[in-house]
């Protein structure tokens, strides 16, 4: 493992060997104001500790007390999902004249890379970074040809960088030796009260997307988009998450892909702003991806306990998953999501943490 050091922000690592004789690693990034904790299981964010307006720090993401639970992690807490985030209809697609059948782990569809997608794999910690203005960790994963049904040997790198301006940047890269769909995202759930409030229904959310992708009866992309105006999905201005959530009863809450207004390949644009009035905490999301999936933990039922010492209840957190369009491999008019040999998949998402002044 490489360590890049100069005086400044701190990145540390510790580890233990589990019952399967695998080395589980824990990484801590600290800029003196915010602490980000990671593990090599699923390349996951296990905690983000940020201050409120009274400088009281809380962990604002869902995570397990026992990191080995990330090997199970049915709700994808904090992990990187892939090869393909979101759903692929019936787990099948045709690419270069050949039909591929992926695993069906969300019947009748393939979801988040399958039963043992990137979210459940042991990643390799390649480097720690400590510099004057940033600290970080670099992970890699090698996905062999045929894993979960996907074609091609895929090499993936994810770099987490915490800077002195309280931004956590996630840089994704991938290369393949055979054409394959790739769509990577981080699946952290946020509750800006540190789960002191059991739901995020009183959080305010703004999404910079005037349209959303309509869904089929089987909960995959229907291939069409519609305006959010006049619907429960209108978050074009800050709105309480709970205000219109009953309007998404078919999904038991929000589980929708919003088309971002200002997407341009290779350029970061503001995707969403999440805020909470009692603590003053604010999360701003930037990405160069064209969509963001908003998911309000609709199926949490309290059976999973959190690092914060409380059960995770329905609507306990909100995931803001920056990504390519779902099921693009079966929607020819959607933007291309196929990575080909000689090309590089590269994308960036930034979580910026702040505190609003009291009113």
Account of the protein in words:
This protein is mainly β and 359 residues long. It has a single domain, classed as Beta-galactosidase, Chain A, domain 5 (Distorted Sandwich), CATH 2.70.98.10. Helix content is 0%, strand content 43%. It contains no helices and 29 strands. It is globular, with a radius of gyration of 19 Å. The model has no long low-confidence stretch (mean pLDDT 95).
Oligomer: single chain
Largest sheet, in brief, is: 10 strands, mixed
Q: How helix-rich are the residues, as a percent range?
A: under 10%
CATH topology assignment? Beta-galactosidase, Chain A, domain 5
Strand content: 35-45%
CATH class: Mainly Beta
Query: What low-confidence regions span 5 or more consecutive residues with pLDDT below 50?
Result: none
- Secondary-structure arrangement, i.e. CATH architecture: Distorted Sandwich
- What characteristic shape results from the CA principal axes? globular
Number of helices: 0
Distance between the termini: 47 Å
> H/E order of the elements?
EEEEEEEEEEEEEEEEEEEEEEEEEEEEE
User: How many β strands by DSSP?
Assistant: 29
Biggest sheet, strands in spatial order? 1-12-13-14-15-29-25-24-19-22
Radius of gyration: 19 Å
How many separate structural domains?
1
């Amino acid at each position: 493992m490489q360590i890049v050091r100069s005086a400044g922000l701190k990145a540390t690592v510790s580890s233990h060997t589990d019952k399967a004789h695998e080395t589980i690693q824990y990484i801590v990034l600290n800029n003196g104001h915010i602490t980000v904790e990671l593990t090599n299981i699923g390349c996951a964010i296990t905690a983000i500790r940020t201050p409120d307006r009274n400088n009281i720090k809380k962990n604002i993401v869902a995570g397990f007390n026992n990191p080995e639970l990330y090997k199970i992690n049915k709700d994808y807490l904090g992990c990187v999902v892939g090869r393909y985030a979101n759903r692929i209809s019936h787990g099948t697609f045709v690419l270069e004249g050949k039909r591929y059948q992926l695993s069906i782990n969300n019947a009748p569809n393939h979801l988040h890379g399958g039963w043992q997608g990137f979210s459940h794999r042991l990643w390799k910690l390649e480097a720690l970074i400590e510099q004057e203005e940033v600290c970080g960790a670099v992970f890699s994963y090698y996905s062999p040809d045929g894993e979960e049904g996907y074609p091609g040997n895929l090499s993936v790198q994810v770099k987490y960088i915490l800077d002195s301006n309280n931004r956590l940047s996630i840089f994704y890269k991938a290369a393949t030796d055979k054409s394959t769909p790739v769509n990577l995202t981080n699946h952290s759930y946020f509750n800006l009260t540190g789960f002191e409030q059991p739901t995020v229904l009183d959080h305010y959310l703004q999404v910079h997307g005037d349209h959303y992708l309509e869904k089929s009866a089987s909960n995959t992309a229907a291939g069409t988009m519609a305006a959010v105006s006049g619907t429960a999905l209108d978050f074009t201005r800050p709105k309480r998450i709970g205000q219109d959530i009953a309007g998404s009863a078919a999904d038991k809450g929000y589980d929708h892909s919003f088309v971002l207004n200002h997407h341009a390949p290779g350029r970061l644009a503001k995707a969403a702003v999440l805020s909470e009035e009692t603590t003053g905490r604010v999360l701003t999301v930037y990405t160069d991806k064209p969509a963001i999936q908003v998911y309000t933990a609709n199926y949490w039922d309290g059976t999973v306990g959190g690092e914060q010492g409380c059960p995770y209840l329905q609507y306990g957190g909100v995931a803001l998953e920056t990504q390519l369009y779902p099921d693009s491999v079966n929607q020819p008019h959607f933007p291309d999501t196929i990575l080909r040999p000689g090309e590089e998949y590269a994308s960036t998402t930034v979580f910026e943490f702040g505190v609003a002044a009291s009113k």
